[in-house]
Write a structure and sequence with these properties.
205 residues; mainly beta; six-stranded mixed β-sheet; 1 helix; 19 strands
Length: 205
């Protein structure tokens, strides 16, 4: 298998589907807010690359993995250009350090329509410029999740924003000689100050 050479650089541009974040009465009074967004750039030769974001987990420094956002939304990565913003969620968390964030790719698409004005045939798929649809098999991340980057902190009364830079060009792996693609997510996690620049790795289990 070889990686596609569909473009040479990643243009960081934002995109959002706002999900409501309601206050959690079980949280202590000292709480902050986590905002998660996704970004990407266009790909020559393809009209759409659809990925379904199932849920997002966080790992407190003193605790276990916890699901904090369930977007369950199907996003066309190629529409996240020219400043279009897509917010995967906003939620309150207890203050303190968190060691990791994990994104789990969904297996069931949402009920929106794609660029062909038809329901999503798969949770994860691409559409080429001729309108041909191909399902994307996911390498890791579908069951175990994609573990993202270094630690972050939640501070009382403040919002911590994490941007998931989903690099579609380097996430699509093309098999020879069939020419079929699989999805091997390559994601960088950035804060507003660009402190993070870590490529995601799929867990083994």
């Amino acid at each position: 298998m070889r990686r596609t050479g569909l473009f040479s650089s990643l243009a960081m541009v934002a995109g959002t589907l706002l999900l409501s974040g309601c206050p959690n009465p079980d949280l202590p009074s000292a709480a902050g807010t986590l905002s998660v967004r996704m970004v990407d750039a266009g790909l020559p030769g393809l009209a759409g690359v659809y990925v379904t974001v199932g849920h997002i987990d966080v790992h407190p420094q003193d605790g276990n993995w916890k699901t904090v956002l369930v977007p369950q939304t199907t996003v066309n990565l190629l529409e996240l250009v020219n400043g279009v913003q897509v917010n995967l969620g906003l939620t309150e968390l207890s203050t303190g350090p968190y060691t990791e964030l994990r994104l789990v790719i969904g297996s069931i698409p949402d009920d929106t329509l794609n660029i062909l004005a038809t329901p999503h045939p798969y949770a994860n798929y691409l559409i080429d410029e001729s309108g041909r649809v191909q399902e994307l098999k996911v390498h890791g991340g579908l069951q175990t999740g994609i573990t993202l980057g270094d630690s972050f902190s939640i501070n009382s009364g403040k919002t911590t924003m994490l941007v998931l830079a989903f690099d579609a060009a380097h996430s699509l792996v093309r098999a020879a000689p069939s020419g079929e693609y699989t999805l091997q997510p390559a994601i960088k996690v950035l804060t507003g100050s660009n402190q993070w620049d870590k490529t995601a790795s799929s867990e083994d289990g």
